[in-house]
Structure formats: C-alpha cells, structure tokens
Amino acid sequence: MTTPPFDIPEYLAVVSSPIGRLELTSEGHTVTSVTVEDDGALPHDDLPRRSNDVLDEAAAQLCEYFDGARRDFSVPVSANGTAFQRAVWDGLSLVPYGSVISYAELGSNAVGTRSGRAVGRAVAANPLLLLIPSHRVVSASGKVTGFAGSQGVKIKRWLLEHELVAA
C-alpha cells in the first residue's frame, strides 16, 4: 500500500448544511477536519469522495445538530497542532451547547493565559469546526468576531442563534 501525499486525506465526505457545504476528512478511524465552504469552494473539491464509517457517523451527527436533535458530538477526533493549540481546543470542547466564553476566559481556563490574541490564533487554527465548538468564543465585550472563511461572522452568528445564544 502506498502512502498518499500529506495534503490528500485518506477519506473525504461532503455534507450539505444550513451554513453551506461541509467537508469532512478522516485518517483511519478518527475525523481530522471539518471545513465549511468559502465562496462556494471546499479545500478538496477536486478530489473524489471516499467515505468510511467514522465520516458517515460524523455526517449523521452533524445533520442531527442542524436539526436541533443533538447538542454534543461523540465521534473520535484527532487534530494536529502545537501543545498550546491542543490545550485551547480541549478547553473549547468543554464549552457547553448554548453557552459562550471570551477568548481571555478560555485562555485562563485552558492554558493559564489571558492573552486573547494567542488564544484567538489557536481558536482560528481549529481544524474541527463544530465538533470542537470554536463558534462559542466571543470577544470580552460579547461581540461576535472572526470565524471560518469570508462569511465567518455571519456563519458564527447563525450557529449561536441556532444554539439560542444571545450574543
């Protein structure tokens, strides 16, 4: 068996959602990325789809989330990042459905720093949108700021409203 190039995922699925198409990738039995389309394009639009059981389950759980029938995800995930990024992402995973947290508060809880910029960069690098809920992080003033792609703030607002968060 040959090893595919680094940037080509082993498994790839695309799911339609109210916020646009979502690209799901996995290596083996863990989901490695969830990406929302940006300006109508996904990172691997040119590749053939090849799903597996974990992507099928992730797709089903995402559909349940958008239907309002799911608040938490139980698919196995694996994200490459620095120790700091992984600590921030672990902290994100603890933010409950329907809640928000500030970048500074997340940093203080997850990694012992209140540096909103450093935490913001780690949040922005989250490869597992929705499964690791980076949309639940807001500015210290409660303002909805940056998210994925050119429509990021609009998508983030939609997700927060979907979860009935007044932000």
From TrEMBL:
Methylated-DNA-[protein]-cysteine S-methyltransferase DNA binding domain span = 83-163
Tell me where on the tree of life, at the top rank, the source sits.
Bacteria
Alphabetical UniProt keywords: DNA damage, DNA repair, Methyltransferase, Transferase
Catalyses which reaction(s):
a 6-O-methyl-2'-deoxyguanosine in DNA + L-cysteinyl-[protein] = S-methyl-L-cysteinyl-[protein] + a 2'-deoxyguanosine in DNA; a 4-O-methyl-thymidine in DNA + L-cysteinyl-[protein] = a thymidine in DNA + S-methyl-L-cysteinyl-[protein]
Keyword DNA repair carried by entry? yes
Keyword Cytoplasm listed: no
Set out the biological process GO terms recorded for this chain's protein.
DNA repair; methylation
Which one Pfam family would you cite for this protein?
DNA_binding_1
Its Enzyme Commission number?
2.1.1.63
Per its UniProt record, what InterPro entries does this chain match?
A: MethylDNA_cys_MeTrfase_DNA-bd (IPR014048), MethylDNA_cys_MeTrfase_DNAb (IPR036217), MethylG_MeTrfase_N (IPR008332), MGMT_N_sf (IPR036631), WH-like_DNA-bd_sf (IPR036388)
What one GO molecular function would you report for this record?
Answer: methylated-DNA-[protein]-cysteine S-methyltransferase activity
| Boundaries of every Methylguanine DNA methyltransferase ribonuclease-like domain copy | 13-78
Entry's family note: Belongs to the MGMT family.
Protein name listed in UniProt: methylated-DNA--[protein]-cysteine S-methyltransferase
